[in-house]
UniProtKB/TrEMBL annotation, chain A:
It comes from the Eukaryota. InterPro entries: LOB. Residues 1-97 form the LOB domain. Belongs to the LOB domain-containing protein family. Pfam families: LOB (PF03195). This is LOB domain-containing protein 12. PROSITE patterns: LOB (PS50891).
Automatic annotation (TrEMBL), chain B:
Signal peptide: none annotated. PROSITE patterns: LOB (PS50891). It comes from Sesamum angolense. It comes from the Eukaryota. This is LOB domain-containing protein 21. Transmembrane segments: none annotated. InterPro entries: LOB. Belongs to the LOB domain-containing protein family.
Length: 106, 184
């Protein structure tokens, strides 16, 4: 926010969520979304939801800077794959249990 | 006198009469149509935002802005730009659907599901271990045929496991380092 200090009034929409003592936070969202877009997103939300929105925008911007190709979508892909693998494992184990169960009953 | 017989020819003729060297292209990409500018042959957006997909660029523009998208595309290798655009479009769509959490909401939901699955796996593996143990006990007991005089040597029966078997390697999962509200 220091980059905009001289231009923004003291009651600017960013100040509660992008404090001056953490310049990286705003720098990241500004780099990916632009100040104007972030302002519009926050403006369209009730005040009670803006802090969470600012946090999620910061996190997504961080992911995008770290991985310009996939951003946080890369993590979603990984999680989908791991969920699929876990479901397959669970299905295999449940099949083994069913087989052993019927074997012990017979 | 050259006569314009079609609408396109009319436009072309007007363009020529106004001194323009070429008529406005009718094959502008979605980005240039949205931005109301001429789409050049080397337009950066044209390969990824076809003219028949106007909403795709509109979403990305609303969330990221054209210049930011351009900067991101310039940072990645050309062969990765299509993937980059796809992920930006996805992220923009999710953000527009959920302006508060965007993709972070989706990540949190998937992490929650993963934790539930891990719990189910632990229980299932423990249950399987019990069944296997029961089977082993049954097999070793039936091995002792009491009608035979010469008893077979005792089978070394191991103590059953505590019940909790190997679960997932938590460290292998990315969400420990990408937990939604553990910010860098």
């Amino acid at each position: 926010m220091q980059a905009f200090e001289e231009e923004m009034p003291s009651d600017c929409i960013f100040s509660p969520y992008f404090p001056a003592n953490n310049p990286r936070r705003f720098a990241y969202v500004h780099k990916i979304y632009g100040a104007s877009n972030v302002g519009k997103i926050l403006q369209d939300l009730p005040v009670s939801r803006r802090a969470e929105a600012a946090d999620s925008l910061y996190y997504e911007a961080y992911c995008r800077i770290k991985d310009p190709v996939y951003g946080c979508v890369g993590l979603i892909t990984i999680l989908h794959q791991q969920i699929y693998d876990a479901q397959c494992q669970l299905a295999r184990i449940q099949a083994e249990i069913a087989a052993l169960s019927s074997q012990s009953q017979s | 006198m050259w006569r314009a017989n079609t609408a396109v020819e009319c436009k072309a003729k007007r363009g020529i009469m106004k001194g323009h060297q070429e008529p406005r292209s009718s094959s502008s990409c979605a980005a240039c149509k949205f931005l109301k500018r001429r789409c050049t042959p080397n337009c950066q957006f044209a390969p990824y935002f076809r003219s028949d997909e106007p909403k795709k660029f509109a979403k990305v523009h609303k969330v990221f802005g054209a210049s930011n998208v351009s900067k991101i595309l310039n940072e990645v290798a050309e062969e990765q730009r299509e993937e980059t655009v796809n992920s930006l479009v996805y992220e923009a769509e999710v953000r527009l659907q959920d302006p508060v959490y965007g993709c972070i909401g989706a990540i949190a939901s998937l992490q929650h599901k993963m934790v539930e699955l891990q719990h189910d796996l632990i229980l299932a593996r423990a249950r399987l271990a019990c069944y296997v143990d029961q089977q082993q006990r049954h097999d070793s007991e039936s091995f002792f045929d009491i009608d035979h005089v010469n008893m077979a040597p005792l089978v070394d029966i191991q103590e059953p496991s505590a019940g909790v078997v190997d679960a997932f390697d938590y460290n292998a999962l990315p969400f420990d380092q990408f937990s939604p509200f553990q910010f860098p």
